[in-house]
Amino acid sequence: MNPESTSLLEDYFSQLKYEKRVSIHTLNNYRRDIKQLVNFCSKNNIERWQDIQQNHIRQHIAIRHKQGLAASSLQRELSGIRSFFKFLEQQKIIVNNPVRHIQTPKKQKKLPKTLDVDQISGFLEAGTDSVLEIRDVAMFELFYSSGLRLSELTSLNIESLDFNDKTLTVTHGKGGKSRILPIGSKALQALTNWLSHRKILSQEQQPALFVSNKGNRLTARSVQLRLQQWCKKKGLDQHIHPHMLRHSFASHLLESSQDLRSIQELLGHSNISTTQIYTHLDFQHLTEIYDKAHPRAKKN
C-alpha cells in the first residue's frame, strides 16, 4: 500500500484505541485480520484502498477459506475488514463500500454439551473436605440452580442474594443488563454453608460473594481451574466447564417445562433465537426416548 493508505490504516487503529476504546485483544485481532488484506493487496499490486473492488474482497476471502480458515474465523476476519471500510466511508475516502454485500460461509452451529440429571447429582453431591471445597460446591450449585454465566457469578456480591425471596440479582449481565433469578433449595443450603465459613478467607470490607484463599474476589480463571481440580479429585473422566452447568440448567428446564420464553428470560438472552438451540437438545432427548421405547424403532 502507498504511504497515504498506510497512514489511513494507522488513523483507524488510533480511533479504535483512543476513541472507541476497544480492548487490546480486539485491537490485535483487527490488526492481524487487516494485515492479511494488506498482503493480498501487495500480491495484486493494489496501492490504494479506493481501488479495492467487491471482487477483490471475494477473492481474498476465498483464498483464506482455501488456506483452511474455519467459517467462524472468516466471519471475524471479515468483521474487522468491514469495520475498517466503514471508517473509510466516514472519512469520505471511498464512495462505494466493497464489503457491504460480502458474506462468509455460515458456521455450523454446535450443540452445547450438557450433563444429565444423574451426572449433575453425582457431581454436586461428591462431598467436601475443606473450606475451599465448600465454597466451590456453593459456586457449582449456583451455576446449575440459576443458569449463570461465568462472568456473572464472579461479579456477584453478598448483597446480590436475597434469602427471604430466595432470589439473586445479576447486575453485570451481558450488555449491562440486570435480571432477578430464583435460587433452588440445594443452592441455598450450599450458600448458607459457604457464608458461615466465608469469614475465614474474606478480607474486611470485601463485598464479593466468592473470594479466594487470599480474601480477594475470585477470578473467572480461578473458577475454571477449581472446577477442573474438582473433577480430577472426584475421579470424573468427563471434562466439565462452567458453561456446561448453564447449558444443563437450560436443557433440563426445557425438558420439564417446554417454556422457551421463560428460559430466555432466565438466561438473559436478548434474542429468542439464541435460546432456541436448546430446543435441538430437547429434540435429541425426545428422539433418544423414542428410539429406546418405540417397538418399531428399537435397534436389535
Question: Layout of SSEs?
Answer:
Elements (H helix, E strand, L loop, with lengths): L2 H17 L4 H20 L10 H13 L4 H20 L26 H8 L6 H16 L3 H5 L6 E2 L4 E4 L8 E4 L2 H13 L22 H14 L8 H16 L2 H8 L4 H4 L1 H17 L7
Antiparallel strand pairs: 1-2, 2-3
Helix pairs in contact: 2-4, 6-8, 6-9, 6-10, 10-13
Largest sheet: 3 strands, antiparallel
State the fourth-level CATH superfamily of the largest domain.
Intergrase catalytic core
Strand content: under 5%
Q: Which residues sit in consecutive blocks of at least 5 with pLDDT less than 50? A: none
In whole angstroms, the N-to-C terminal distance is 66 Å
CATH architecture of the largest domain: Orthogonal Bundle
Secondary structure: number of strands: 3
Give the CA-based shape: globular
What is the CATH C-level name of the largest domain? Mainly Alpha
Tell me the Rg in angstroms.
Answer: 25 Å
